[in-house]
Amino acid sequence: MEETGKSDVNFHWNLFLNQEYRKPYFIKLLKIIKIEYNNFVCFPKQENILSCLKYCSFQKLKVVIIGQDPYHKENQADGLCFSVSHGVSFPPSLKNIFIEVNNCLNLKKNLYPVSGSLIRWAKQGVLLLNSILTVRKNCPLSHKNIGWEFFTDQIIQTISNRKKNIVFLLWGKYAQKKIPLINSHQHHYILKTSHPSPFSVHMGFFGSKHFEKTNSFLKKIGKKTICWN
After folding, report:
1. Is 69 a catalytic residue?
2. What are phi and psi of 129, to 5 degrees?
3. CA distances from 33 to 41, 56, 78, 130 (A)
4. How far apart are CA 59 and CA 2, in angstroms?
5. Which of 3, 36, 138, 208 could join 193 in a cystine, given CB atoms 3.0 to 4.6 angstroms apart?
6. Are 71 and 77 in contact (CB under 8 A)?
7. Active site residue: 8, 69, 78, 153, which one?
């Protein structure tokens, strides 16, 4: 039987968002985003900016994967970190993620899913959270320090304090900087390794078996495992 803490029974993302929307930093952030989208090509589409919360309910949440900012090329970003819209070629990091999934599950080499969309993970309780939720076309980190980091840190802290036994997959130094936000008293399971980027994938990500370890932990605490393939 899956465990659900009393503190999150009546809590949901809309309640969290309604609280944040009223805060001065978020009002300022929305003004900046409106200007950016009116004057530049930005990703993801405005209706998909919060897709990571749309597809992963707070009640079903089991795993958190933290990215930095969205893909900055045409038609790639869909609002979930590392994920791309259906029909889009896999970026190198996503391809490496699927390679590690194959290795963990002992699947045939070079066996990739039909789609690079990770919505199927999100619907199972995997929050695919970028720290920065928007970006200008062809300008990585262009929306750094405009307010998104504070907002997404609030999401991480809310999860950490209200949930128990969440698996945090922290790939790369940037994601690992979020460790101080994770409440050590809530029995969360933190897994760290290098980023799946081609520049660092051989520094620990390949062979880390994070997907296998995540499912072993979920099974141990009586939760349904994630179908990663």
Report:
1. yes
2. -105, 115
3. 11, 24, 17, 16
4. 11
5. 208
6. yes
7. 69
